[in-house]
């Protein structure tokens, strides 16, 4: 794992967008795993502004609420159109989200896994982290080998996401269809972005704490190519922050990103 501490949120977002843009330019037919949530909004804005082509790119989103149709303004399908898909040259047929409206969620989950496999697997997966320690919607005690399935959302997550539902926690759906922790670990590269003081405690547990199903994000410790991009606030709880800064300063591969570090 590489922890990449940035001075502020803007630069953490810019660095994340730059990593994605670089991968897309190097491999235009990239299979890109996408996340939603507030943290990612500015990442998508920067990708749109970069002008990079998504024409040959295939995308798979981490999750979708159960019971929200794709045209519901709070669905993640709407979020993706609003923040990215409507503003780039991506082929809508190459964009995939789990089907939260399926009458058989188990079959929909299996179909999602099959679609990822048919695409050749995910090259780069973008991740946020929830205050409950989730990646995707893998709430505490999700099996570290879990695959796509439906999960009950914790009260912490429903509270965290209430802002997108007019501040009404009760309006946040109770379930979501999400890639599993195992599905996420099968991707070829992970980039997790976190910002803000509210994430400092859970980031420290995920990065430096024990590997545990209580904090699904701690599973990133098992991945052989994982970057954790943080602003100063989200990095504030890390004990070994000086070491992570030392590594970044000395890694030549970050030389063309010094403006952001
Ligand atoms: C969303 C997702 C979640 C979010 C996480 C952080 O697709 O998978 O894991 O990334 O809840 O959300 P924000 O950025 O709103 O704090």
UniProtKB/TrEMBL annotation:
Entry GO terms, CC: cytoplasm
Domain of life assignment: Bacteria
Keywords: Hydrolase
Enzyme class: hydrolase
Positions of the Glucosamine/galactosamine-6-phosphate isomerase domain: 11-221
EC number assigned by the record: 3.5.99.6
GO MF annotations in UniProt: glucosamine-6-phosphate deaminase activity; identical protein binding
One GO term of the biological process aspect: carbohydrate metabolic process
Signal peptide feature range: none
Protein name per its UniProtKB record: Glucosamine-6-phosphate deaminase
Species this protein is from: Palleronia marisminoris
